[in-house]
Amino acid sequence: LFSIFFTSAGFVMATAPIAPTINGLLNPPTDAESLELYDPPNPTAASINALILSHPLSQSLRADPSFAESRPHMKIPPAARPNNLTGGTLLGDDKVVVPPLVFTEAEGKSLVSLQYLGSALCGHPGIVHGGLLATLLDEGLARCCFPALPNRVGVTASLNIAYKKPCRAGQVVVLRATTVKVEGRKAWVEGRIETLGEVLEEEEEVGGMRVRKVGEGEVLCTAEALFIEPKAAATMPRVY
Length: 240
Prior knowledge:
Blueprint: H1 2-15, H2 18-26, H3 31-34, H4 43-54, H5 56-63, E1 67-70, H6 85-89, E2 101-105, E3 110-117, H7 130-145, E4 155-163, E5 171-183, E6 186-195, E7 199-206, E8 209-214, E9 219-228
């Protein structure tokens, strides 16, 4: 009896830290809840966060009823974030300082994401590493099309990137993606990363709200990708 008791107690104690992670995967926060989960850890992060949230581009997308706003990386259980590249490793001071703010159009039609890229993400001094931009495009284009796939998950089959201009560190960039074709378990997506356009004097009405217009940003790189849903997708866990 003592052996059974202590063996069972040891098992419970060993697996206890896993329980919140499992619960987080099975019951992730909603889009709206994910927006409330980030608390800037320092004044620099708070300033960047305020800029992204209040920028006229964010305001315009927020007012558009066809888009849903979220911070997907905040849906990853805290215990799992250190082992997630974009949700943990790349987040932090001088990197992707605040979790990207993402606006998604229903049924996987399009996506717009705003994120700050810091000086610790460079290849050449002051220039963001091209591999980091490829990572952002891979994830952003995937996130765009997944809702259009039967089981809402897929893997990258191909990703072609054209680098147009250097991406300087220390700025907010905009990732835009559009799903151009879906055939069964396959989805083709196009996208780009551009600078945050200049805020113009003119206003426009979006969803009954008037917001300042934003000029076109400078295109830094473009991409085309094909994503394929695995045959066993129905049994795959959803990370976020």
